[in-house]
Amino acid sequence: MDHYFTNNQNLKSEIKEINYAYNGIDFVFLSDNGVFSKSHIDYGSRLLVETFMKSKPISGSVLDVGCGYGFIGITAGKLLDSNVTLVDVNKRALHLAKMNLDKNKVVGKIIESNAYENVSSKYDYIITNPPVRAGKKVLLDILIGAKEHLNKDGTLWYVLRKDQGAKSIEKTLEEYYVVEIMEKSKGFYIFCCKSIDNTA
User: Which residue segment(s) compose the domain that 186 sits in?
Assistant: First the structure.
């Protein structure tokens, strides 16, 4: 079975538009077959962005890992008036993300990368709805690997469902970060992590 983190060149393209609004600011996203949550904005992603914005972040560089068509990074980037970097392994997702950057007038760049393989910069915010179906190793590579790509005082924000092992993953991450649960809703947990090195 093909998942949204694989590249299937034979998949028929059926581009559709998805609308989203936050605090009176409208967004339009192009989506397609073969990408995560192709027909609507995923509840976890929306909760992640809205919880992040409620924390009153200041403008800073944003990295969206496993970006799909770019909802999280583009929304955060536009609301913060910040530069954004969108990373994914799925070529179709990255093609859509590029179009969505332009469509929503957000300054940013696209990197094809397996987790941080091709990422060399550091960021103020790393925000991710990680691809749980890709397996626990990929999930932990993204969440633990963020530590090497955060600026001093930078934060990692992520969403996981309770039934996807949110609590056990939290325990694992406590070796690397100070981890805080920022929101819980409909089985989704929103976490904010700050590197232990930066909290001394």
Answer: 16-198
